[in-house]
Amino acid sequence: MNEISTHFARPWGIRTPNLTRYMEKQYVDEFFTLGKLRIPSFKRFRNNPDEEFGDPFEGRVSAKISTPNGSLAIGAINGQEAYVLCATTVQSQSLEAKFRTEYGIRILDSLGFASCISSHIAGFVGGLEGLCSYRDDVSINKFITEPFPSPDRFPNPEEWEKEHDKFVSVQSRDALFIKRSIFSHQAEYRLIWFARGTEKEYIKIICPEARRYCQKIDSNNPMQLTAKASTD
To answer: What are the strands, taking DSSP E only, across the chain?
Structure first.
C-alpha cells in the first residue's frame, strides 16, 4: 500500500471508487432516517464466526522491515482503538448472495464520508482508507530508506520507546489492508478510524450529515440507486 501525499504544481485528480456497503434493510433504513451507523473493530472481525464476515487474521501484523541501520521483525495484534467500515467496489447479485442481502448504501465520496464519521468518534487521532490487497501469504517483507530509530539518538528511554512505537505503527499499516486470497471476491475497500482508548467490539454513532455523501440501494431494483439522501 502506498499512502499518497502530493503537492503537484499542475492540475491532477485522484479518482476514488464508489463503494457499496451491503447491510440488512433495518440498518440501511436507520442510517437514511436517523444517520445511525454501527462500525465494527478488528477485534469484532477476529471473533466473528461467519466465514464471510469474520477472519481470525484481521488486525494481525507479521512483518520484517529492513532499514539502512538494521532490521526489525514484527509479530503483533493491533492494540490501538480502531474501527473499520468495509465496502466493496463491486455491486453484483453474486455478492448479494454472499452477504445474504440485496440492501445497502452506496458511498459516493469516501473522503467526505470519512471526515463526517471522524467527528463523532471520541479521541479520534487519524485514519486511513484504501483498497485491500489479497495474498496467500499475508506477511510483509520490505526495505525502506528511513533509518530505524536508534536509542542513542534520544535523551532518555521513554522518548526512544515513543518514537519506536510510532515507527512500528507506521511501517506495519500495510498489514491492515492485506487479506487472504480466499476473500478476493469481495474486492474490498476499507476505511479505518484510529482513536485513543480501549478497543471495543464496535461503536454506534449517529451522524446524519454523512448521508449527503451516500445513496440508498433500491430494494426493488438493487442495481439502481435512489436519489441522494436528504440532509434535512
So the answer is: 19-22, 36-40, 60-67, 70-77, 81-88, 104-107, 124-131, 133-135, 140-143, 178-180, 188-195, 202-206, 214-216
